[in-house]
Amino acid sequence: MSEADGKYRRVAYYPGCALEGSGHAYDRSTKALGKELGLDLVEVENWNCCGAMEVKNIDPKLQTYLSSRVMSIAASEMGFDTVMAPCNGCYHNLKKAEHDLAEDPATVAVVERLSEKAGHETYKAGDIETIHALDWIREAIGEDGIRERVKNTLSGLKIANYYGCMYTRPRHIFPEKDQGPNSESTYEPHFMDDLLRAAGAEIVDYPLKTACCGGAHTLSDCDTSTKLVLNLLEAAEACGADVIATECPTCHSGLEMHQIRAETRYGRKTGVKMLYFTQLLGLALGIRPRKLGIHENVSDSRALLKEKGLA
Amino acid sequence: MPIHEKSLIRPENIISHENLEIDGIDVSGHWSTFIKPRVVTDYNEDTEEEIAALPGGEFIHRCWQCGSCTNSCTVNALDPEFNPRYWIYLARLGMEDELLRDKDRIWQCVSCNKCTYSCPRDVNPEGVMKAMSHWLELKGHTPTSPSMQFDEEFSGQVFETGRIEEGRIIRGFFKRTGQNLMQDWLVELVKRLIRGLPVKLLMTMGLANIFRPRTRGWGPAREAIEEYVAERKMADRKALGLDEPGIAEQESEQ
Ligand code: SF4
Ligand code: SF4
């Protein structure tokens, strides 16, 4: 069992800006899950924003610098070789920085110059492995590990798993994906499906796993985002899902926000509930809903969870 | 020059005759519809290079027009006129007038990277869309798009403190774009948020305003970033043959 080699049992944790705000419940449930499973999360000291999509749009190399600073601290100042980022945006950016610093000398030059002026070690490609919260649980605990620990099975809960854009695209920044059995697929990701299925949930066949929620323009082009989100919600309902499981704070709050907007602006009401996969796993492991921040979610799933005997 | 598709079949490029006889054969009606021949002389050979000089546009020259980007595109599915392959084609031919017909659409790319995922030539079409949007704005063809306004608000806060706070971003963006914060759906959102945890709302929307999240010792990083951004802006303008931002432009940005 993977527990024996201790992989990912102690990692540097990079929550990122969203987990301190709208994604607070994701932060809470991730930490609660780690505690329950005996996995150590050591927060990256004095971290900064990874640059998100917005700084990339101003200048991609600058975004790479911002992401590299986070890895530099984790590696040089804290001695870690793994950073776990639960936010798809942060995860994506750290991966992209890793790729660009290994492949593009012009990016390396910019990062060297900025790091020197900012007064910290320049991050060197290869020093850090960035993983997502899904990789973390899957590797450190695994499906069998989850199965053994389930106290409240999720059976009876129909879940559509939504991964969004940044977890799989573009392919070249995720060299470990698409490596055959046991690796994650960029075309049809399944790590979240596997873990939630191990927790007893009924996973519906959801064709929009990696479709876009319009998160980049959630406020700057609201109508487009609402249309995209409504499509995701209605498709999940058509597939018979009670819940859309999420693994990104931006997708999650985008779905919640535009579910409300579709209702108030277009009169299109949908009832499917959004829950972070960490919240769902936490419930299965018997962690109290409050500790998982279930009450903080804007899409209120409490009645549904009660009905299914989960809260 | 290869045919330039859509531009051939717009109403103004079509000739049709009520009654037409050619070589003694009556071709009135359906058979009398022709596409006007057109010779392109107004192309700008610099367009491709200019877009390639902006961040994200570097690999536009690799495109071989397979159409995978448009075929997989999220926004194209909502708006068939949103056509990355076509815009890359126009930019490469330097057909700026044709490109400008879609100037208010290009910024709507949601950066889903479906195009980049499916592109067989490593063009990075998502980046090209961003470069084109920048190009349109820098050249003064479009005002700053809402997307760019958001990016500037967001990035400004990151550069300043190292981190962002969402409530501040939302307020800043709405102010910049002259929108009212009291929109029906936002009010509803806040209502449902409060139901869950009022303390959280206070923290994120209120207290964070006083105790702004910030990265300690950010000063030197901020200076280095600001210097870099200023250099980058100058380089972009230079590549497009534009002067340094004049006073008039700075005023209009206010
Ligand atoms: S990144 Fe933009 S252009 Fe590319 S597929 Fe997505 S919306 Fe279309
Ligand atoms: S997918 Fe790539 S090569 Fe094909 S048309 Fe789009 S940019 Fe060009």
Question: How would you characterize the overall build of this protein?
Answer:
The complex is a heterodimer of chains A (311) and B (254). Chain A has 311 residues and is α/β, with parallel strands linked by helices. Chain A has two domains: 6-131, Glutathione S-transferase Yfyf (Class Pi), Chain A, domain 2 (Up-down Bundle); 151-307, Rossmann fold (3-Layer(aba) Sandwich). Chain A has helices at residues 24-37, 52-58, 60-77, 88-103, 105-118, 133-140, 142-149, 191-198, 222-238, 249-266, 277-284, 302-307; strands spanning 10-13, 40-43, 82-85, 129-132, 158-161, 202-203, 243-246, 273-276. Chain A has a four-stranded parallel beta sheet with strand order 2-1-3-4, sandwiched between helices. In chain A, strands 6-5-7-8 form a four-stranded parallel beta sheet, with helices on both faces. The two termini of chain A are 31 Å apart. The mean pLDDT of chain A is 95. Chain B has 254 residues and is mostly helical. Chain B folds into three domains: 6-35, no CATH class; 47-138, no CATH class; 146-214, no CATH class. Chain B is built from 13 helices and four strands. Chain B has helices spanning 47-53, 68-72, 74-78, 84-93, 96-100, 114-118, 125-138, 146-161, 166-176, 184-196, 198-210, 219-239, 247-253; strands at residues 14-15, 21-22, 25-26, 34-35. In chain B, the strands form two sheets. Chain B has a two-stranded antiparallel ribbon. In chain B, strands 2-3 form a two-stranded antiparallel ribbon. In chain B, helix 10 (184-196) crosses helix 11. Chain B is elongated, with a radius of gyration of 24 Å. At the A-B interface, helix 2, helix 3, helix 5, helix 9 and helix 10 of A face helix 3, helix 6, helix 8, helix 9 and helix 10 of B.
